[in-house]
Amino acid sequence: MPQAIIRAERVEKFYAQPSENRIQVIAPTDLAVLPGEIVALLGPSGSGKSTLLRMLTGLSTPSAGEVYWHETPVQNAAMNVSIVFQSFALFPWLTVLENVEAPLQARGVDPAERHRRAMHMLDTVGLDGFQHAYPKELSGGMRQRVGFARALVVEPEVLFMDEPFSALDVLTAENLRSELLELWQKKTMPTQAIFIVTHNIEEAVLLADRILVLGRNPGRVRTDFHVALQHPRDRKSSAFTQLVDYVYKVLTQPDAQPPELPRTTDGRRVREERQSYKMLPHARPGGIAGLLELMLDHSGKADIYRLADDLAFEIDDLLPIVDAASLLGFLTINEGDATLTPVGAEFANAEIPRQKTIFREVAVQHVLLLRQIVRALASKSDGSVPEEFFHDMLDEQFSEEETLRQLETAVNWGRYAELFDFDASRGRFTLSPTRRREEALETAG
Amino acid sequence: MKLLPSRFNSESLRNDAAPPTLARSQAVRRSWPFLLDLLVACVGLAAFYGIVQIGRLWLGQPQPNVVLSLSPRALPRYALYSVVRMGLAYVLSLVFAIGYGYVAAYSRRLEPLLIAALDILQSIPVLSFLPGVMLAMTAVFHAHQLGLELGAIVLIFTGQVWNMAFSFYSSLKSLPRELTEASDVYHFSRAQRLLQLELPYAAIGLIWNSMVSVAGGWFFLMACEMFVLGSRDFRLPGLGSYLQTAASEGRTGAILWGLAVMIAIIVATDQLVWRPIIAWSDRFKFEQVESERRVHSPLLHILRQSSAARVLDRMSLAPLTERLYRHEALRTAARQQVRQTSPANRLSTVLRIVAAGAAVVVVGYAALRAMHLLRGVDAAQVGTVLRGAGATLLRVVVALTLATAWTVPAGVAIGSNLKLARVAQPLAQIAASVPATALFPILLLLLLKSGAGMGTAAILLMLLGTQWYVLFNVVAGAMAIPGDMKEVAKLFRFGTVQRWRTIILPGIFPFLLTGLITASGGAWNASIIAEYFHLRGQTMQTFGLGEQISAATDSGHFAVLLLATIVMALMVVTINRLVWRPLFRLAESKYKLA
Lengths: 445, 594
Prior knowledge:
Chain A is an alpha/beta fold. Chain A folds into 3 domains: about 5-250, P-loop containing nucleotide triphosphate hydrolases (Rossmann fold, 3-Layer(aba) Sandwich); about 280-365, Winged helix-like DNA-binding domain superfamily/Winged helix DNA-binding domain (Arc Repressor Mutant, subunit A, Orthogonal Bundle), CATH 1.10.10.10; about 365-445, Arc Repressor Mutant, subunit A. Chain A has helices at about 50-55, 95-105, 110-125, 140-150, 170-185, 200-205, 240-250, 285-295, 305-310, 315-325, 340-350, 350-365, 370-380, 385-395, 400-415, 435-445; strands at about 5-15, 20-35, 40, 65-70, 70-75, 80-85, 160, 195-200, 210-215, 220-225, 300-305, 330-335, 335-340, 385, 420-425, 430. Chain A has a 6-stranded mixed beta sheet with strand order 6-7-8-3-9-10, sandwiched between helices. Chain A has a 4-stranded antiparallel beta sheet with strand order 2-1-4-5, with helices on one face. Chain A is globular, with a radius of gyration of 25 Å. Mean pLDDT of chain A is about 85; it is low at about 255-275. Chain B is an all-alpha fold. Chain B folds into 3 domains: about 75-290, MetI-like fold; about 295-330; about 375-590, MetI-like (MetI-like fold). Chain B has helices spanning about 10-15, 25-60, 75-105, 110-125, 130-140, 145-175, 175-185, 190-225, 240-250, 250-280, 300-305, 305-340, 345-375, 380-415, 420-435, 435-450, 455-480, 485-490, 495-530, 545-555, 560-590, and strands spanning about 225-230, 230-235, 530-535, 540. In chain B, strand 1 and strand 2 form a beta hairpin. Chain B is globular. Classes of the chains: A alpha/beta, B mainly alpha.
């Protein structure tokens, strides 16, 4: 086996909290990038794909573990890598040519040589004639070509790509993808390896020699396998679709066994499962209801992959809705197939008021956070609880950003279910008017 | 990967950096640059003459009692002096603001300290620094006029630097993450990062804040050029002192000449400096799509056409940055090798701790001495200062209320009527940029003649100096109200009251608030001039905090000056925290139009 260009050894990422606990973003992971291969990193959103990429490129330092560049720790090594960014990350005030020259300037390449190499690279990606244009004058696809030219002009040993095609329309993405593959196969560039982060399964199967699938909470590698298909790959071939199906199954399958809870040497531990909040998927009740009604039309059973395809949804957009429905007990998921439960069917068939009643029951039953809010409200004489109270509890377990999103989702669900209301200007949860009326009736009766 | 038809001939574009001008004959294209070069040369010669003049004044003997000539013929020279003072103060501010913002944004340890300092320094009235700065400067440069000049420059600097520093800091803090990552992954040196990422990204914010700062700078320049300090009467030859002298001697002709020059300078600055800069800064807009609305500047066009300017760039700037980048690249490469074997860092850490310790000791000592100074104030004086604060607060409130009362209807009218906006906005901009301090002596004369008191005059000056912030913000707010909201109002036949209550007032609220916050700070600062003024050899005054500060300056009573300054800074900070900040939060959460 050839020597790895980049090797990560037990790298992990966590955020220490003031208390005993910490937020584990990525569990200890081993990973190697070998010469001659295209590696695709797949995973649902929130699994830490980008974080892992940034640790491998040396942009971000792992909380523990070590990344090696040709067996030298990265902080001492002169890495030769590039990144193609999802948002292109071009400097809007520099022309196309200046953008491509910038990395060479940083290396002290002299002007004539710099100009020659940049022009050559622009030529390679099909941008000659555009060198004096500013990025904002170009279309998305053209801008990403500039992104490629800038990444390749330094002749990187490893080319990293962070969802490079996901900001482009389908046709442009397809076009750029095949051109990239052509460059790679013809060895037009001296790049030894490509590492691409994506959430598009077909893209991964189309490009990669090796696919890594990440799971989340905390992020970790669930499978790592080689793709033996010959290039050019045919999307219609059964081998291709089987592979896509397989990856879908891995992605949608709930984790078979919960990951072991790592203990660190200093005795601090990752929060244990039973105390913790389950992460609420960021789905709206309306979206959940829509999905269930659609499932009813599919006689209560559907392949999630097929469903996403029918709806022209990215899997990343559909998964939270599916997760939410399954969390609430409306769906069961098995091997990438979703099945409607009796409650789910009743919900889908019901009129709006009845839907709300059902949602209220299952939400309180299954969601710890909502249960806690309702209980806290019931115990307060003035019927209101400050948001900070729950914010602080969630903060123990989630990052600040995620905490806010969790609260937002909880407010959304709680309002829909008429469990409580939320006064945004005061930042307090309050009893919803209907609940208050019911309570008044109860005490009166 | 050659999918694109090469429609453009790449060779021709590569060699021609300037954008091709359409529909212009070759002859004109060739002769224009020559005339332009001539123009550029003339500007150079004029600059040289100006520098010689300034140098002669500055390095000459100090002239604390300059007799100002009120002849219009002296005006160009005075205007030059004032403009140079402004220019130098601005350059100083810009450099300092960039340094301060940079350190605040990147030093994790200093950041909270520096930002807190910014908050407080912003609320200290500039003119309280006047006696201290002037005395220090004349002591250091006692043989030259330079001391007084530097004093004035430093004062203007303290008035305009803070919002620029804050703007640069917040730009650095909001740099798009992927752009910083791109510059990291390609190992940009600090210099390259600054020139290619940070400065361009911050440019637009810096430019807008510079315009506000320079306008504010004129306000103080007028006051700084002529003042009494104890027994000494300082006069710096300049536009401000010209206007003040003219006013106190009651020479209407001279006043009009002075004002005309003032307005000419402001219009010229706008046309020759700000507009080209804004037009040029268009490329720094961080946007993905090209916008429709643009500022055009003929001057910038001329400069871009001028081959002299281009040659200048190729001869000076380009090789300079080139050498800088090369140097930095070599240094990073060298550092990479050293890094494995360098425990020499400990020494620099020790040095840093020593320096920090020394700074703390010096600051602590100075603070103690200042507090010691305060012991000289008796209880009665404290009472007077506090009552004065109350009186000034009242005036500030009245001035802001008046400003709101007229600017809201006027601003909404301008903002929702494009035709009116086209006429009114440039006029308002010119009116706004005439420093209130320049007009004040004239207004005061008129007011006193009509029998009104100094109290009314003080409120008027505050109003004059601050109403424009409110007006421009209201106009911007009214323009930002979405058209479909107005259509809803029309569709459901909202009455005037309902339209104002449900659409206009909530729509302009965040903007109005921004304007009022700036205006409030400005009004406090203006009280120092407004409540105490020398006119025709008399001292006009009305009871207030600003009067206490000015009077203490005049009499050299530093203890009272310090106390009154602290009280004023405290008032401004407290009002910001207790009134404006909660309101601002409300505006951000409830009334923001996404």
